Amino acid sequence: MRVYLDNNATTIVDPHVFEEMEPYFVQKYGNPNSLHSFASETHPALKTAMEKIYAGIHAPKEDSVVITSCATESNNWVLKSIYFEQILTGKKNHIVVSEVEHPSVIATAKWIESMGAKVTYLPINHEGLIEAEKLREVITDKTALVSIMWANNETGAIFPVYEIGEICAEFGVPFHTDAVQAIGKVPVDVQALNVDYLTFSAHKFHGPKGVGALYIKKGRELTPCFHGGSQMGGYRSGTLNVPGIVGMGKAMEAAVDALDFEMTEVRELRDMLEDALLEIPDTFVVTPRNKRTPNTILISFRGIEGESMLWDLNRAGIAASTGSACASEDLEANSVMEAIGAAEDLAHTAVRFSLSRYTTEEEIEYTIEVVKKAVERLRGISSSYAYAPEGHESGLDAHH
Ligand code: C6P
Fold this sequence. Notes:
The chain is α/β, with parallel strands linked by helices. It folds into two domains: 15-257, Type I PLP-dependent aspartate aminotransferase-like (Major domain) (Aspartate Aminotransferase, domain 2, 3-Layer(aba) Sandwich); 260-380, Aspartate Aminotransferase, domain 1 (Alpha-Beta Complex), CATH 3.90.1150.10. The protein contains 15 helices and twelve strands. Strands 2-8-7-6-5-3-4 form a seven-stranded mixed β-sheet, with helices on both faces. A three-stranded antiparallel β-sheet has the order 9-10-12. A two-stranded parallel sheet has the order 1-11. Bound molecules: ligand C6P.
């Protein structure tokens, strides 16, 4: 059996999405900006796709949604644009990000810092959550941007973006949120949220890879991402990725349709897996389940290196991860575990299981069986587990 539980890294393309994209490779391949029928035959599909994308996040027509190549690009674009417009010009000198943003935000913030600006890395608490009120203490009249993700990719923790948006509006500071892990997992409505910029990526909700987007509220215009031929309202020049945009539109529509299913059925399967794994002694979950996206579990098995667990799971055909896929090769401690100050023997033990609407009960049952066996085997050969002292501090609130 092969079981895919790494949906926060990427997802299977919904077959309906693939079907809708297919004609735009070999039949309707015109450049939409050309002046002939090969171009114009792409227009209806592009229009429909963009309407679905706007509808999916409740963006009003006067606001902009710019299609990019990925969320990494969207995140880089917002932060660097703010740097060029606000910081380099001397108007402002400070940005705020959380300490557990995706590397595409953290690394860009570090670059901004290296250019001489001040960056505040807002801490998470022992539950892996941001406390919105802490933002008040760090915002100044020199703050150019607050960038805090909607849902964390490692724990699934949902951050208080509504309160954060209000605080930003109160101080007149633009607010950007990375909503990559929120689309299709929680309702996303840019009009209900005080948000100026919002990032998302099609491949996280059963769309194609290589298609991201940035929502920009009217009045919060940015420096163009790419100068050139003025596509995407002049924000991002370059020939449009027609199949990709069509795919993102269809995937967005399907994600909105499947939201209730995700919040009930997927959550139920996730809880079934979590309940069974927490029966294993010395296991820990950082963020309470009602404060997480419905598909994610980050769980620690004391005494077992996350990578060893992944190895055993992979041999049994199960795909999971130790955290962010882009940080998985460096064998560093999981960034959330590090941020909450987990004890050394727990920091490297986190394993992330992320489900999707394609996950089945049979797959979860099989996973439970395999994990239980793996824990027994790996703890049997783990010296750190055997010699863990009595009353040993975890740095975490033990759920078991
Ligand atoms: N997170 C993970 O395993 P791209 O691939 O550039 O479209 O998405 C980047 C990205 C940005 N923000 C968040 C919150 C994300 O989760 C991701 C991708 C994957 O967690 C791969 S590192």
